[in-house]
Amino acid sequence: MRVTQSMLSSSALNNLNSSYQRMQTYTNQLTTGKKITKPSQDPVVAMQSINYRTEVGEIRQYLDRNIPQVYSWMDNTDSSLDEVGKVMTRISELTIQAANETLGDNELQAIAKELTQLIEHVGAIGNTQVNGQYIFNGTDTSNAPFDLEKINIAIADMDLPNEEYLFVYDSKTFEWNEEEGVFTDGTSNYVLIDDQFVDADTSEPLPADEVVVMEKSALPTNSEEVTIEVMKGVEIGVNIAAGEVFTAELFGDLYALTNKLNAGESGEEISPFIEKIDNHMDAFLSQRAEVGAKYNRVEMIDARLVEQEVIAINAMSNNEDVDIERVIMDLLSEETVLNATLAVTSNIIQTSLVDYLR
C-alpha cells in the first residue's frame, strides 16, 4: 500500500484537531477549576455530581432551616418553663407567708392580689408564641390555648350542667357525666343543687371557696406532638404536653388559694396548699428536664450534620474539581506535542502547482 501525501496530510490534520481539543479541555479546566462543564464530557462524573449536590443540599436544609427551628422552639419552651418556675417559687413563698396565722386581713388581701397577678402571668406564659405559633397547644398552633376569663367563673353564671364545664376541688378534676347526671372524677360524684356542689351519696356540700369552676375550652385540648425532621429519617418532638403542666388542677389550686385568702383564711386552711404548689413545681421541673434532654440530642445531631456536610463537600470536590498542578503539567505537555505536530505538519503539507493540477 502506497502512502500518499494526501493521506499524510489528513492524518496530520486529525492529530492537530485532537491536540487542539485536548488543549481546549485543559484550558477550560484551568479556567473553571472543574473537570467537566457539560454532562456529555463525562456522564459518570455528571451523575455523581448530581448525587453529591443533592446530599449537600439536604444536609444544608437541616442545618440552615430545620435545626434552627427546633432550637427556637426549645429555647422558647425552656425559657417559658423557667419563667413559670420563678412564678411558682414566688407563689410558694407567698403561700408560706399566708400560712402564718399572725397575718392580718389587709396583709392576706395584699397576698391575694399579688397571687391574682401571678396567675394571670402564668396564663400569659402559656399563650407564648414563636413566629406566630402557640407552642403550648399541640399541633393547633394557630389558636391560644388559655383563656383565663373562662376560669374561676361563678357557679351561678354556669348554664345548666353540661359537658362544657368542669370543676376542680382538692387537686382533682370533676367532669360532667351526662349518662349519670353527675360531675365525677371516676371515684366521687357530685350534683349541683342551689349553686352548691353536693356529694351525690352523702349530700355533703363542698366548701364554696375551694371549688373552682371553668369551661373546658379555657384550657388546651390538643396534646398532639409537633415534630420536625432534624436528620434524614429522624424526627424530634419540639413541644411539651401542656396538659401535663398547665393543668386544670394547677389553675384550680391557685384560684382556690386566692379565694381562701380573699375570705381571710390563714394558718391551717392555707397550709395544705404548700404541698400542692410544690407538686405543681415538680411537674414543671420534670418537663424542663425532658426539654433539656432533647436539646442535648439535637446538639449532637447538629454536630453530626456538620461533619456529614464536610465529608459530602469533600467527596463532591474530589469528583468535580481538577488538580490544578496536574492540569498545568498536562497543558504544557500538550502544548509541546502540538508545537511538534505543527512543525512536522508544515513539512508534510507542501502545496505546489502539481497539487492544483492533480
User: Are there runs of 5+ residues with pLDDT below 50, and where?
Assistant: 1-5
Count of discrete alpha- or pi-helical segments spanning 4 or more residues = 7
> What's the domain count?
3
Coarse morphology: rod-shaped
Question: Looking at CATH, which topology of the largest domain would you report?
Answer: f41 fragment of flagellin, N-terminal domain
> How many extended strands?
11
Strand order of the largest sheet: 3-9-4-5-6-7-8
The SSE string, one letter per element, is HHHEEEEEEEEEEEHHHH
Q: Per CATH, which architecture of the largest domain?
A: Up-down Bundle
Class per helix and strand makeup: alpha+beta
Task: Please specify the SSE layout and strand pairing.
Elements (H helix, E strand, L loop, with lengths): L4 H28 L10 H56 L6 H22 L2 E2 L2 E2 L16 E3 L11 E5 L2 E6 L4 E3 L4 E5 L2 E4 L12 E4 L11 E5 L2 E4 L10 H15 L9 H49 L3 H25 L4 H5 L1
Antiparallel strand pairs: 1-2, 3-9, 4-5, 4-9, 5-6, 6-7, 7-8, 10-11
Helix pairs in contact: 1-6, 2-3, 2-5, 3-4, 4-5
Organism: Jeotgalibacillus marinus
Protein name: Flagellar hook-associated protein FlgL
Keywords: Cell projection, Cilium, Flagellum
Structural account:
Keywords: Cell projection, Cilium, Flagellum. InterPro entries: Flagell_FlgL, Flagellin, Flagellin_N. With about 350 residues, the protein is α+β, with helices and mostly antiparallel strands. Helix content is about 55%, strand content about 10%. It contains seven helices and eleven strands. The chain has helices spanning about 5-30, 45-100, 105-125, 250-260, 270-320, 325-350, 355, and strands spanning about 130, 135, 150-155, 165-170, 170-175, 180-185, 190-195, 195-200, 210-215, 225-230, 235. It has a seven-stranded antiparallel sheet. Strands 1-2 form a two-stranded antiparallel sheet. A hairpin with a 2-residue loop joins β7 and β8. α1 (about 5-30) runs antiparallel to α6. It is rod-shaped. The model is unreliable at about 1-5 (pLDDT under 50).
